[in-house]
Amino acid sequence: MNKEWADFNVLLIVLAVLYTCVLLSVIIDLFFGVRRAKRLKIVRTSFGYRRTITKLTSYFGLMIMLSIADIVASVVFDMPYFTVIGAIGIVLVEAKSVFENLRQETKNVDEIQKVLLKLFENKEEIQALVSFLSSKKQEGKV
Fold first, then answer.
1. pTM (2 decimals)?
2. pLDDT tens digits, residue range 50-81?
3. What DSSP element (H or E) covers 95?
4. Torsion of CA 84, 88, 91, 97, to 10 degrees
5. What is each CA distance from 138 to 1, 124, 131, 132, 134, in whole angstroms?
């Protein structure tokens, strides 16, 4: 009987670690998403935060279903393989999201650089446009 309780305690510890990894991955993604929004001066609304809560409920709902499947499969398997695979999948999805946030930051900087280079390439046309607009403005005042 003591061996069964020891196995049960190990199982609970493994499950706690897996659920904690999922929670931490979502929190890390939230952190990088908010950081990106701050840098790009994007207004952070409750919609984005609600999306995080919805994501957490979906992920934990999936984890609970996988844990139940592991309980049913415990006749065959000693470890919660379904929950482990699910947790790894969720953590990988969140890691991809973090890398996309980081890539988006550098992509926006690259796009700004390209626009500035285009402006410098066409500076004569821009100067002519500014001169034309200035002359029209002067004509309107006189």
1. 0.69
2. 989 999 999 999 999 999 998 888 888 878 88
3. helix 81-121
4. -150
5. 95, 21, 10, 10, 6
